[in-house]
């Protein structure tokens, strides 16, 4: 490749990134004074944060600091844990998701989630993606075919599974299964995708594909990702929130600032590996 061609690609990539970074921050999710307890144990302490739309926000911090708890608070997955109590407010487009009139199932269609371990249903590739659409009432075969293809293309999986839509989702590789779960999440047209360590169970090549995919997904969705991998947070996120032990949100800022010039000494100590 000539130097001119290389610089063209570089310019394109930089332009894309600049566009994303320069996009004004429109808040899509906001927590105010969020406290979460499991029984008597406090897992999140007075967390206030504004998460911008169409950006990747990384949640980092040592084990047990409440990262997954925070993620589950956003789409009310914590409702399913009996011992869990949530106080404070969590707004999605200005509506408190803990208001009595919010249907958690409908909320989870708007705020999808992808987990650490790929968890396809024991069904065909097609049925994994079609599942949520059928639940929503879509039953026309052609419409379903279209929507399934769109979701699989959106998850960068279509080319690999086009000829085996009837095979079991469980027969795919780990990385493909995770992209199938992403396809399942985006099929119902969410606005936000929550990802809880989505690459930690994958080999480096499969993990890298998911990272590339996240970079594409954020054009259409907002991504909030919990990761233990600080290089990954630095590589893929626009904003980084650092939680520390006790469930305290210690600092939230542009990712470059968090990694290069954090305001809080504890964040610097954590990033440089002095603890955690
Ligand atoms: N289902 C639960 N029941 C009781 N306590 C829980 C439950 N889930 C989490 N906790 C507790 O809440 C605290 C925060 O846990 P959480 O899983 O949110 O942290 P985390 O930062 O995601 O941890 P890790 O990085 O190890 O996954 C921990 O002390 C944990 O033991």
Automatic annotation (TrEMBL):
The keyword Cell division does not apply. Residues 13-271 form the ABC transporter domain. Keywords: ATP-binding, Cell membrane, Hydrolase, Membrane, Nucleotide-binding, Transport. Pfam families: ABC_tran (PF00005). Signal peptide: none annotated. One of its GO terms (molecular function) is phosphate transmembrane transporter activity. The keyword Ribonucleoprotein does not apply. GO terms for biological process: phosphate ion transmembrane transport. GO terms for cellular component: membrane. Transmembrane segments: none annotated. NCBIfam families: 3a0107s01c2 (TIGR00972). This is Phosphate ABC transporter ATP-binding protein. It comes from Natrarchaeobius chitinivorans.
């Amino acid at each position: 490749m000539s130097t001119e061609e290389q610089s063209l690609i570089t310019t394109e990539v930089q332009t894309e990134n600049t566009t994303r970074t320069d996009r004004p921050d429109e808040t899509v999710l906001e927590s105010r004074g969020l406290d979460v307890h499991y029984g008597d144990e406090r897992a999140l302490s007075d967390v206030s944060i504004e998460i911008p739309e169409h950006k990747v926000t990384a949640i980092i911090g040592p084990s047990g600091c409440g990262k997954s708890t925070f993620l589950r608070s956003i789409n009310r997955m914590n409702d399913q844990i009996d011992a869990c109590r949530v106080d404070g407010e969590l707004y999605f487009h200005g509506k408190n998701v803990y208001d009595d009139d919010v249907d958690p199932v409908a909320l989870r269609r708007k705020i999808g989630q992808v987990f650490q371990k790929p968890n396809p249903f024991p069904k065909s590739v097609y049925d994994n993606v079609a599942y949520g659409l059928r639940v929503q009432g879509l039953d026309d075969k052609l419409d379903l075919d279209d929507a399934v293809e769109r979701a699989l293309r959106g998850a960068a999986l279509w080319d690999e599974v086009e000829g085996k839509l009837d095979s079991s989702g469980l027969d795919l590789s780990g990385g493909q299964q995770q992209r199938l779960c992403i396809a399942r999440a985006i099929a119902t047209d969410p606005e936000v995708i929550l990802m809880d360590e989505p690459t930690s169970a994958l080999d480096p090549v499969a993990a890298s594909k998911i990272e590339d995919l996240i970079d594409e997904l954020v054009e259409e969705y907002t991504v909030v990702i919990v990761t233990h991998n600080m290089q990954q947070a630095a590589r893929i996120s626009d904003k980084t929130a650092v939680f520390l032990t006790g469930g305290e949100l210690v600092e939230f800022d542009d990712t470059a600032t968090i990694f290069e010039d954090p305001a809080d000494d504890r964040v610097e100590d954590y990033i440089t590996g002095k603890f955690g």
